[in-house]
Amino acid sequence: MIKLRPFKLLSAIAILMITCSMLFAQQATNNSAVLFTNANVFDGQSEKLAEGMSVLVEGNKITKIAKSITPPEGATVIDAKRKTLTPGFIGAHEHLIGQMPFQDAMFMDTRYMGYVGAWTVGVYLKNGFTTVRDMGGNTFSLKMAIDRGYIDGPRIYSSGALITQTGGHADHRTMGNSPQLAGGQWDNLVLWGDCAIADGVPEVLKATREQMRMGASQIKIANAGGIAEGDPLDIVEWTAEEVQACTQAATDWGTYVTSHTYTKEGVDRAIKNGVKCIEHGNLLDEETLLYMKEHDIWLSPQVMVFKNEIKGLNEEQKKKHDEVTEGQEKLFDIVKKIGYKKLAFGTDIVTDPKTLVRMNEEFVWRTNWFTPAEILRQATSGNAELMALSGKRNPYPGKLGVIDEGAYADILLIDGNPLKDIKILTDAEKNIVLIMKDGVIYKNTVK
Ligand SMILES: [Zn+2]
Asked: How many angstroms does the Cα of residue 136 sit away from the middle of ligand 1?
């Protein structure tokens, strides 16, 4: 069992990186079998629990599910005592870099960003997230450190830098910055590979391929305005040719592009030019959603982040925030009406560590429109389908987000039944009593 607090681990990394490396790697890969007995299983799909089941984990996979299984020799047996056994959660729109006040993100150094990133991934794991799709940031080395066993954290689907145009969603320069054409410097987030600014087809191709070179599993762009940034909400960013260049480059690498876009105009530009997933989409209408449904395009919305007051917004930004929050009410009405299914689960919490630790409230906010079973499906087998869109660039190409034979052993034990009372997930420390990722147990308070 590995139980390391991120801060403890950080100092361990600083002092003992070399001597510890072998030990961590061993702990992360040298698993014997674990047999869960007497568990009520939510398999990631069904609306009902399969009661009193046994689930056998060997190595990093689930190898057998049955009413009764004889434990293999040397196996650890865990009596679940009718607790709910679910797949680990998957977050589709998360930010592992930048969980700090925005000023820190702009002016601290990359090491500080990395240390806070190491804390952030620990928060995700403690809340039951065994996989996250990062939506913009230089997370490549963070992912590597987790995969190699140095840091406890979820599987990461890295997008690398968020790519936009000059003056677009990822352009964080201030008025004090000289224009690029006059030799002006980029801001730190661009210099560190968390954001990229590209104009015209050659630059878009280069920026996209830079992320692929680093190991991105998908590409994240913003082709319309935002809220907390300077760009107006109503603008469409990138021409059709620029969007197409990006999606072509991603397709050539065997993967896809997802785009931050709130408005119908932005989404239409994106999906008509090869984008396969829309982040937010709050101001969409029925016509565009029907097109998306017909063409199997994903919608990745977030609720909690709009219901919370975002601190530090100016009047203009507050107006934009209110507009998209209102729009989302209508959006979900249309989603329900047309039976739109490719709906992801994610939080989009960024620059806000205090809200981040409350991330599981997202499950509860969604009950305004969806049943607990629908929400849990979004956060497990549904999101797993979205992760698989990474195709040839999928870093974890096995079965994810389900309790099934042959699936990755990403498993939670929950005290209570979240299909009946999803609120229990908001107290993860108490109610998520066991967390296993890739066959390794990271937390176990089962008596
Ligand atoms: Zn985001």
From this structure: 7
- Contacts of 142 by beta carbon, 8 Å cutoff, 6+ apart: 96, 97, 114, 117, 118, 121, 151, 153, 156
In angstroms, what is the span from residue 230 Cα to ligand 1's centroid?
15
Is the torsion defined by CA of 47, 42, 328, 272 positive or negative?
negative
Residues 415 and 338 in one domain: no
CA 237 to chain centre: 24
> How would you write the pLDDT of the chain (447 residues) with one tens digit per residue?
344 444 444 444 444 444 444 344 334 444 589 999 999 999 999 999 999 999 999 999 999 999 999 999 999 999 999 999 999 999 999 999 999 988 888 889 999 999 999 999 999 999 999 999 999 999 999 999 999 999 999 999 999 999 999 999 999 998 889 999 999 999 999 999 999 999 999 999 999 999 999 999 999 999 999 887 778 999 999 999 999 999 999 999 999 999 999 999 999 999 999 999 999 999 999 999 999 999 999 999 999 999 887 777 888 888 888 899 999 999 999 999 999 999 999 999 999 999 999 999 999 999 999 999 999 999 999 999 999 999 999 999 999 999 999 999 999 999 999 999 999 999 999 999 999 999 999 999 997
Distance 34 CA to ligand 1 centre (A): 37
Pairwise CA distance, residues 220 & 163, whole Å: 6
Amino acid of residue 282: N
- Distance, CA 269 to ligand 1 centroid (Å)? 19
- 352 and 250 within one domain: yes
Is 193 contained in some domain? yes
Same domain, 158 and 249: yes
Is 208 in the same domain as 137?
yes
Q: Are 171 and 230 in contact (CB under 8 A)?
A: yes
Ligand 1 centroid to Cα of residue 50, in Å, is 36
Span from the CA of 445 to the centroid of ligand 1 (angstroms): 33
- Is residue 392 one of the residues assigned to a domain? no
Q: Is residue 377 part of a domain?
A: no
Q: How many angstroms is it from 180 CA to the middle of ligand 1?
A: 26
Which residue range(s) make up the domain with 173?
90-369
For the chain, the domain total comes to: 2
CATH number assigned to the domain comprising residue 162: 3.20.20.140
CA of 352 to the centre of ligand 1 (A): 12
Report how far ligand 1's centroid is from the alpha carbon of 444 (Å): 32
How many angstroms is it from 163 CA to the middle of ligand 1? 12
Spacing, Cα 406 to ligand 1 middle (Å): 32
- CA–centroid distance, 346 to ligand 1, in Å, is 9
How far apart are the CA of 280 and the centre of ligand 1, in A?
A: 9
CATH number of the structural domain spanning residue 74: 2.30.40.10
Q: Read off the tokens for 139.
A: 């997370």
**Amino acid symbol at 306:** F
Are the CB atoms for 385 and 247 separated by under 8 Å?
Answer: no
Among the three residues 321, 346, 369, which one is the final residue of a domain in this structure?
A: 369
Asked if residue 281 and residue 216 are part of one domain, the reply reads yes
Indicate whether 52 and 189 sit together in one domain.
Answer: no
